[in-house]
Design brief:
- The chain has two helices and no strands.
- It is an all-alpha fold and about 90 residues long.
- The chain has one domain.
- The longest helix has 14 residues.
């Protein structure tokens, strides 16, 4: 499931998201940092990818080579859900 960062509506994302692709509902840019799986507000440059170039406008289209559309299903997980998932995974390898 993929959600637009602006309107939060579910959208069908093309296999390759181009710089000019927009959300059909709110017209927001799709290829932007806020829709990327590497976006992390608490990291340096707000990105997990350390080699990515700095992007100032996180909600605007850009040319980042590391862009990958994020999976919105994992975005809503709480810390408890993540801990529970990790415990289940650890239990598999005991």
């Amino acid at each position: 499931m993929t959600l637009c960062h602006k309107c939060k509506n579910e959208i069908n994302v093309p296999k390759i998201v181009g710089r000019k692709d927009i959300c059909p509902l709110c017209q927001a840019d799709l290829r932007c940092c806020l829709n990327c799986r590497h976006y992390a507000p608490n990291y340096y440059n707000q990105c997990h990818e350390s080699q990515a170039e700095r992007v100032l406008d996180k909600d605007r289209a850009n040319f980042c080579d590391y862009f990958k559309f994020k999976d919105s299903a994992s975005e809503g997980m709480t810390k408890g859900d993540k801990d529970s998932s990790r415990k289940k995974l650890d239990d598999l390898f005991k």
